[in-house]
Structures are given as C-alpha cells and as structure tokens.
Amino acid sequence: MTIGDMDNIIKLQLNKTLKETNLSIPGAKIYQGKVRDNYILDDKRIIVATDRISAFDRVITTIPFKGELLNQISSFWFEKTKHIVKNHIIDIPDPNVSVTHQCETVPIEMIVRAYITGTAWRKYLKGEKVSGIELPKGLTKNQKLDDIVLTPSTKAESGHDIYISREEILKQNIIDKDIYEQMEQAALKLFNFGQDYCKKNGLILVDTKYEMGIKNGELMVIDEIHTQDSSRFWIADTYDDLFEKGEDPEILDKEFFRGWLMTTYPDVFPDIKPEQDIPPIREDVKIELAKRYFRSYKKITGTEYKPEVANVMERITENLTKAGYI
Length: 326
Hints:
Elements: H1 3-13, E1 29-32, E2 36-40, E3 44-49, E4 52-55, E5 58-62, H2 66-81, E6 89-94, E7 97-101, E8 104-105, E9 108-115, H3 118-125, E10 144-150, E11 153-154, H4 166-171, H5 177-200, E12 203-215, E13 218-222, E14 231-235, H6 236-244, H7 255-264, H8 283-301, H9 312-322
Antiparallel strand pairs: 1-2, 2-3, 3-7, 4-5, 6-7, 8-12, 9-10, 9-11, 9-12, 12-13, 12-14
Helix pairs in contact: 1-8, 2-8
C-alpha cells in the first residue's frame, strides 16, 4: 500500500470512527473507560477498543482505525508473552473486540522505565521523586537509565493516577506483599522480553505500563500490553544521533500527540482541568497519528495491517452475533 493510498483510506474513515458503543448483551454491566467500553458478565468481560484517544487524563478526540490497531497489537503481544505470564484473553471475535476472563483488578499499575522521558522527566525537572525513587543528578531528557526502574502508580477510577512507592503500597496494605512481588517479577520479565523483541525489529521499547488482575488466586496480565497507548516506542537507528544533537527521537506512539497538544495549546496542556473544553484537533494531526500507529504495528509484527473503510459498530455487532455473544 502506497503512502497516498494510506492517507486516502484514513481520510475516508475520519467520519466513521468508533466514538462509543451500545451493544445489547443480556445481563452485562457496562463500564466505559477512557478508550475501552467494557461489558461485564459473571465470568467474562467483552472489551471493545474504541477509536477514542486520551491524553492528560482526558478523552480528546477519535483517530481512524486506532481501536482495531490497539486491540490487534495487544492480542499479538498477549500471544507472544503467554509463556511468561498468563493473560486474560479468551477470544478475539472482531478486530476491535477482546473477550476476556473476568478478573479482580489489582489497584496498582506497574510502570517500567528504561529511559527518562514523559512524566518522569517533567517530575525530574521539578526535583520530584517518582514513586519514591530519586534518579541520579545530571540526566538529560530521553537519556537511557543505567538500570530499569519500576514506578508503580495507583489505578484511579477517574482523574489522575498517583505515583506511589513500593514501601507505601506495602505499608498501606493496598495489596498483599506476595502478590506485589509477583507483579514486580512479571513486569520485569515482560519488559525485558518486549525490549529484546523490539530491538530485533529496529525499535526501542522505552517504557510501558502493565495492569494485572487475579482469577482463582492466579495473577494475570489484563487490559493491554505493549501498545502505542500504554508504551513509548522510538526508532532505534536514529536514536543515538538525535540524542547527541539534543533532539527528540523518532516517536511511534501517542507521545507525538501529547507533544503537539502542549505546543499548540500551552495554556491548556498538560494541566487541563476536568471542566475545560477540549480545543479543536486538526485533521492532518489525526491522520499523522493514525499513520504512526500503522507504522509501529508493521515494525513490531513484521506485517502490514490492511484497514477497510467501514461502519465499525455494524461490523462489531455482526461478528459478536455470529460468535454467539449477542
């Protein structure tokens, strides 16, 4: 597919993005996250990845094909890592949909970092610790850290998640020590695997977050894994040269979007308030972000994702009906 073809397909889908869902699933409780709509049954959860994109804890807009790309890259990684840690996947009946085990969500996210950037960098500039960790003096933005660090945060229902130290998690008895230690080990194993896999494909897995749940006493990875929303990906070949010049790396995740928001609307982002209106997002920015999602999918999986312009909600309903979930 040529660049022109891709641009045209993305443009055609701009007015067909999946903003929200309204599935009729008997007995399901509905929970809408920032990006995913959840239909919760006793033993299963049907998760629909919409095209919504969030930044700074607000849903900003929708991006063509984002939901299916997010769901497909996550299912790719879940399949690749199931030998390391069990995950919640049961079935993928539609490009946007995952049917999963219903788990008890652990209220702590495990954030793993190999470079200092993003929120960690902004806190570092203010002289603040991240999850109780004081990083060495003299670091530069986007610099590789000597050691991988874990910076856990609370899993908030709404508003900002809060970074919290290992010591505070255990002191407050938020989760059992044994479970927390399992989460630490799982997060590091998954991150190391992801880094090695990405390195072979010319990518740097910069940082990521993992959410975990428990079913029948067993720890599982839930939500998503190593996606463009939950992780940062940089192009490996150009990183060293750009870092030496003091320039930002080539970004293949939504950090590009965060940067655009802060540059275009510095009076609004990153400290946008819950009551503030979302400013307009240009069409060319949506198209560029969609293209970066496609590019990272290809870099990671080694295959080109072939999108189809469609009414996504109609397709989801049809596929879930065929699979017997509706």
